[in-house]
Amino acid sequence: MTTVPMMHAMIVAAILLGLGLTGLLVRRNIMFTLLSIEIMLNGAGLAFIAAAAHWKQADGQVMYLFIITMAAVEVAVGLALVLQMYHHLRTLDLDAASSMKG
Amino acid sequence: MTLEQIRALLPLIILVGAAVAIMLGLAVRRNHAFTVAVAVGSLAAAILSLALGPTVATPITPLLRLDGFSVFFSGLILAASLFVAVLSHGYWNRRRTVISEEFYILLLLAAAGSVTLTMAVHFASFFLGLEILSGSLYAMIAYERDRQAAVEAGIKYLVLAGGSSAVLLFGMALVYARTGTLDMAAAAAKLAGALDVLTLAGVAMILVGIGFKLALAPFHLWAADVYEGAPAPTAAYAATVSKGAIFALLVRLAAAMDIQSNPPFQATLAAAAVITMFAGNLLALRQSNLKRLLAYSSIAHMGYLLVAFLAAGTLGRTAVGFYLAAYIITTLGVFAVMIVLSGTERDADRLEDYIGLSRAHPLLAAVFAGMLLSLAGLPLTAGFVGKFYLLAAGVGAHLWVLVAALVISSTISLFYYLRFIAAAYAQPAAPPALPAAVAMPRLARLAIAVLVILLLWLGVYPAAVIRAIQEAVAIGR
Amino acid sequence: MPVSRRGATAVRALALAAMAVELVLAVGAWIYYGRLGAVGAPGAWLVELNWPWIAPLGIRLHLAMDGLSLLMVLLTAFLGLSSVVVSWREITQRVGHFHLHLMLVLAGVVGVFLAVDLFAFYFFWELMLIPMYFLIDLWGHEDRHRAAVKFFLFTQFGGLAMLLGILALYFAHASQTGQYSFDLADLARTNLAPAAAMLMMLGFFLGFAVKLPAFGLHPWLPAAHTQAPTAGSVILAGLLLKTGAYGLLRFAVPLFPEAARQFAPVAMALGVAGILYGAVLAFAQSDLKRLVAYTSISHLGFVLLGVYSFNVLALQGAVMQMLCHGLSTGALFIIAGLLQDRLGTREMGRMGGLWAVAPKMGAAAMVFAMASLGLPGLGNFIGEFLVLLGAFKVNVALTAVATAGLVAATIYSLWLIQRVFFGPSAEPPAMEDLRPHESLVLLAMVAVLLWLGLFPQAVLETSRAAMEYVAGTQVTATAEIPQLSTPGARIKGATPKFMEWTPTLSESTGEILQLRMLGVRIEGATPKFMESIPTKSESTGEILQLGVPRARIEGATPKFMESTPTKSESTEEIPQLSALKAGIEGAPRESRELTPRSEEGSRFRLQLTSGTRLMSFDGCLPVPLSAPWRGRFDHVSRPEFPDVPVARTAGVRPVCGLARPEFPDVPVVCELARPEFPDVMALAVPKGGRR
After folding, report:
1. A54 found inside a domain
2. C127 to chain B: nearest residue by CA?
3. C356 pLDDT above the threshold of 80
């Protein structure tokens, strides 16, 4: 079985991060925004896994577990806020959430 | 784990224990005053445990380290949390529409996260601390979920903090991929002298992530909306505890990695500092909302702090420590006035709310003016010595451009501070927008009195504090 | 919080009592420490207080008083008392608050006049601002908010520029001595490269020139003076402007004597521009207070001119002008305030013919207007005259132009009196003349002005030592010192303030007498007399040049000293004498041919520092380079290259390298100094170039 070189995995991870970032900047729908953040986090997670595999250590995998946990927290709070926002605004469009200016 | 390490960990154990205790207690019976008492008591106990804790630097697992540096910054953070908790009591009492007790759970957890940050010597603990803090802050910001602005602010902060965390993590992963260790000092040692593109990108992404949390330009745009939407105690918390903890982490990280002496980072951070100072102060000029103004002014102050940060060395780190202390005391002071003036419906964050404050509450107006003058850096206040220290650090390190930017931008800042001070002492044409006689809770009064004493103490006779900070940052290395 | 009528009176009485005590104390200090003018040596404090403050940064609460501070404190106490009195009727809103700010600003002013630790000075400097801002913003007239903000921004910016200068100097000093101090006496000993000194001096100058205000930095002044309440205007014109002039005299000039001297033409030109600009614009005003405000710019221009003329005459004039301007302009503002209080306007167009109803006020105004135009017999005349006299020696053209300002002053002063007190009145004026307490204040001011005009000696004597110190730090004054003089060496550069020659070794060997000049101590205190005590001179003929036992040179600044070892040319035994001769710039070269009798590298050029930089001695040093020598050096030059002035090479370890890149063959320096005399710099220029 051939191992995947770390650099390749890193590049995939970077692409994931870039995709997520693009989504974060481009999409105005709050659900997609949250999804984009998940994708970014997964990119970071993948990078940790690849690095851990390269160094044959568990540290990076532990970090990935932390990242999953954190992603869960984000989603939990995020969805709660989305519900509230929908309750207030009847839309999921982020641009509608602009009552504050200045 | 040895007894000594448990002793060192005691502040965190107390905070988390108290949070759990409140959570369980709420299942039995809700009592606001009791919850506040537990929260304040646990914060005080945590401070006490710090004071009585190990006097030598104690590593607690590879993740955390209790030394003079973390003791000082943890103490600062815990004290600030304590003030926020005390002030929140009266604030939530007036907002009867909201269930208030859970706020203190979040506050304690956020404090625990912040303390973790000040002790972190490992990327894992850095990340954990940061996320415990951020996760709590999301909820604290959107705590009044029936207010649209609060929810908007929460979502905004969540999205941006989440995105920046991802960037930060990716940076850590890059550094990890190159060095094979998540220990900051060990990673720095392996990187020593040889930053290739990958690790350069990694460190840069870490700095971007931190810059986001500190609202440094060009990542500063979220701050004003978040502060405005958040309830005043949360805004106070975000402006003081959260920023203080992250700046402490940044100082420790930079000391380990020697970021300031790396030309590309130095240049980038210097540019960021200049832009941050000017952006913060120029944007604050137009504000007539006190929360937004404080958001921008806090951005500017983070820019000032970067000057001392870039100066590095003991002088630079002492300046950072002192200025953070002064900034936290002062910002808490302004928010304290805002919190006690806030009514049942909305926060006292408009300029109109302060017109003629000296008539209705002469003492409160004096405190308000004193705190704003401290933010502007005028004598007899902590801000004066703080700004002096920053400039000293900058001049000592020959950072002339930064120092000049600091001088010019802080002169600009006088405009908006003076506007609010002048408003507070103006003769009102119309009766004040808020009910004149706000019943000030005795505890809040005490808290404000203590803040004023600290403000003057640091402004007039700071020798002892400076010496303590010098020792703390010297041990920190 | 409304204060009851009785409470308000109590507050006023308390403030009055405080200022009265202050005045008594100041006069007491004048009598006790200053002996009413018989004040001690230049650069020496009459009385001082030195407490630790912020030890980790080397900050001390160091307050000290010399003749200049004494006069300024007297002025502060007097004008402070007057301000409380004139506010008695005018201020009816928030009386307690008003007096709080009034007392605070006066505290700041007194602090500024006494602080000689630069941090403390900056602390008090900034402390003045806030209460002054409030005085204008809360009790001022119609356009007070803008005026207050303008005042605050200008002065704060200037203050920060000055702070940068202070900090730069602080670090320069610390890097040279390893000692962190903000003390004036310590910082004055810093060695600075000319460019650095100039930049720092400009920082200080900016801070002080905004306050003064110098021409170009004045826009805050008319608005602030016009809009402030009467007491505020009196304090602004009478005291706050003086803090700027005081700062120049106390800090900007003595700390950077050479940079200040280079800058002098610009500063003098600014002064003259201010004189004319203020006078011309004063003429164009119809608002009484605004007119007086512009005259302030004009009068303070004289102060600037005097300060940068660098001679005792002009400096004395500047001090006199500061005092008299404080009184006369303060008084004019009081009168303007009284008129506004009574008539509800400051427009001169709506006044006129007031002499008929208020002759007392008219007479008082007449006196102060005459003072303002410089009528002999009143103090202002003395001040302006001395300034012009002193400046004339330095720059005839500028002085001539400045004199035109006097003509303009005559016009606007007479015009003011004419329009307000004589002239046709628009409506029949009905107004009360001076009330007793107002008369008392104005009468006291008239008396003081007259006294200053007729018997200026006490004041001039009080400030003389301080002004000689300021002038003495300059290079301009020259004096030959005959007892040391004969052809030979000259010492060029700044002025040795106090030099002590301690030839301890002379008793035994005699030969190395001039080496002991290493032990020359130059202290920042006395610029006036020099004492050399060559113990052996009487007996041995060899050391003739030092053989001027107890030569005391008083009253003049030794610009260059010629010391001639009469015997040096011929005899080899007294190499040290030749060393003296050789080292010093412009000296004959032959002495350098003397062979160093000890090891290689014992050819020396010794640089003794004081203030910024000083003379140098070059020659042989019969002491090995080794043990007791260590330290650092700062300036390099070699007699062969008289036009290579000084190169600054910071560092602690003996550095070898090029003195200046442009002169690659000016080689190497090794630093020396003796631990006992950390401020004595020395450096060696080893034979044969770099090492």
Report:
1. yes
2. B379
3. yes
C477 pLDDT band, cuts 50/70/90, is very low
The pLDDT value given to residue A102:
56
pLDDT at residue number B159: 93
The alpha carbon of residue B267 and the mean position of all alpha carbons in its chain are separated, in whole angstroms, by 25
C-alpha span between C180 and B75 (Å, rounded): 29
Phi then psi for residue C522, to 5 deg, are -120, 120
Q: What angle do CA C191, C197, C199 make, to 5 degrees?
A: 155
Residue C257: band (very low, low, confident or very high) from pLDDT cuts 50, 70, 90: confident
The CA distance from B142 to the nearest CA of chain C, in Å, is: 38
- Which of A13, A50, A59 lies at the smallest CB-CB distance from B182? A59
> Which residues 17-76 of C are in CB contact (within 8 Å) with B?
52-57
Of B135, B163, B180, the CB nearest to A37: B163
Q: Provide the number of structural domains found in chain A.
A: 1
Read off the tokens for B427: 């003769």
In chain C, the percentage of residues whose pLDDT exceeds 70 is 66
SS3 C444: helix
Tell me whether residue A102 is in a domain: no
Q: Which residue of B has its CA nearest to A13?
A: B170
B434: β partners = none
**Residue A2 belongs to a domain:** no
CB C485 within 8 A of CB C561: yes
Q: How many CA atoms lie within 13 A of B137 on its CB side?
A: 33
To probe the interface with B, which of C123, C125, C145, C220 has the most B CB atoms within 10 Å?
Answer: C123
For residue C37, what pLDDT band results from cuts at 50, 70 and 90? low
Range(s) of the domain holding residue A49: 7-90
Q: Domain residue spans in chain B?
A: 259-477
User: Which residues are CB-contacts of C182 (< 8 A; sequence separation ≥ 6)?
Assistant: C57, C58, C59, C60, C117, C118, C119, C120, C166, C170
Judged by CB atoms closer than 8 Å, whether chains meet at B169 and A48 is answered as yes
Residue C672 pLDDT > 70: no
Q: Which residues contact C535 (CB under 8 A, 6 or more apart)?
A: C503, C506, C507
Segment (H or E) for C392: helix C379-394
What's the mean pLDDT in C174-181? Answer: 87
**Chain B CB contacts of C122 below 8 Å:** 388
Residue in B closest to A95 by C-alpha: B152
Tell me if there are at least 3 CB pairs under 8 Å linking chains A and C. no
Q: Is C618 helix (H, G, I), strand (E, B) or coil?
A: strand
* pLDDT more than 90, % of chain C: 42
Q: How many helices (H) and strands (E) does chain C have?
A: 22, 10
* Whole-complex ipTM: 0.95
Of the candidates B289, B294, B445, the one whose C-alpha atom is nearest the C-alpha of residue B353 is: B289
| Mean pLDDT, rounded, of chain B | 91
Closest CB to A37: pick one of B127, B162, B181. B162
pTM above 0.90, yes or no: no
Model confidence pLDDT, tens digit, residues B213-226 = 999 988 998 999 99
Q: What is the pLDDT of residue B16?
A: 96
Task: Of B155, B161, B152, give the one whose Cα is nearest residue B132.
Answer: B161
User: Using one digit for the tens of pLDDT, what is the confidence trace for B51-98?
Assistant: 998 888 888 889 999 988 999 999 999 999 999 999 999 899 888 777
- What totals of helices (H) and strands (E) does chain B contain, helices first? 21, 2
Short-list C371, C346, C566, C337, CA closest to C450: C371
User: B161-165, B388-392, C356-360: which range is least confident on average?
Assistant: C356-360
The number of beta carbons lying within 10 Å of the beta carbon of residue C633 is 25
Cβ contact A47–B148 (<8 Å):
no
Across the interface, do A74 and B158 touch by the CB < 8 Å criterion?
yes
**Domain-embedded: residue A57:** yes
